[in-house]
Specification:
By secondary structure, the protein is of the alpha+beta class. The chain is built from 5 helices and 13 strands.
Length: 227
């Protein structure tokens, strides 16, 4: 069941579900592609999320009511093409160390796990890209195993180093640049995910998969990682 609400002077928000579902990202991405293909002159921007799609449109060429009707018609005739694009699996190296994982020691104590078990749990999952956050390379990945889930920090950190891997509830993510944040930091990747590298703009796409794999401290440093 779809629900469309006004989301600003020239934007509307389409809800595809009330609950997060691993089948939704591809479906929302697929609909977004079809919508912009059908109305290339009207659609200005598309922002997919876990359960919704924010659509910004050109008010100089249409009105809210006219565009709403067009979007509703598109939804009514929408046919999900499950094979429209194969998911890409991205492998990300991570050094799970206490020097890089600021919350790792605390989480091990809270979860009553040893370091190797924690690493195995986090790195054994192929995480789905559910949504893109404040940056084109900040991907919300899920779902984290219930054994290592943890709520956001009560007091966010002012600075989290670029490449840090975090956990917040059922999601995990990589901080592409130095920034503030309240996620539990468990390690760091030596890979540069900043927009200094233009190819990173399309690094993560909704519906793709991400797999972390552990590396040693020596390998992390050798690959340019900072402690």
């Amino acid at each position: 069941m779809h629900k469309i609400v006004l989301a600003g002077e020239h934007s509307l928000l389409i809800y595809f579900s009330k609950k997060i579902d691993p089948n939704l990202p591809k479906k929302i991405s697929n609909f977004a592609e079809q919508l912009i293909a059908k109305f290339p002159s009207l659609v200005i921007d598309l922002t997919p999320s876990h359960t919704s799609l924010l659509v910004s449109y050109n008010l100089n060429l249409t009105t809210y009511q006219q565009f709403l009707k067009q979007v509703e018609q598109c939804l009514n005739t929408f046919e999900y093409k499950s094979n429209h694009a194969a998911s890409i699996l991205l492998s990300i190296p991570v050094y799970y160390g206490f020097e890089t994982g600021f919350d790792l020691e605390r989480l091990l104590a809270e979860k009553q796990l040893d370091l190797n078990t924690f690493i195995d749990i986090h790195s054994s999952v192929k995480y789905l890209v559910y949504a893109i956050g404040f940056s084109p390379v900040f991907a919300f990945l899920g779902e984290v195993d219930s054994r290592i889930r943890a709520p956001r920090l009560v007091t966010p950190r002012i600075k989290i180093p670029a490449g840090s891997i975090g956990i917040a509830q059922s999601q995990t993510a990589i901080y592409p640049i130095d920034s503030s944040g309240g996620w539990n930091i468990i390690g760091r990747t030596p890979i540069d995910l900043s927009l200094n590298n233009p190819s990173n703009i399309d690094k993560f796409k909704i519906g793709d998969l991400v797999k972390f794999y552990p590396i040693s401290k020596n390998e992390y440093v050798k690959r340019g990682g900072k402690l």
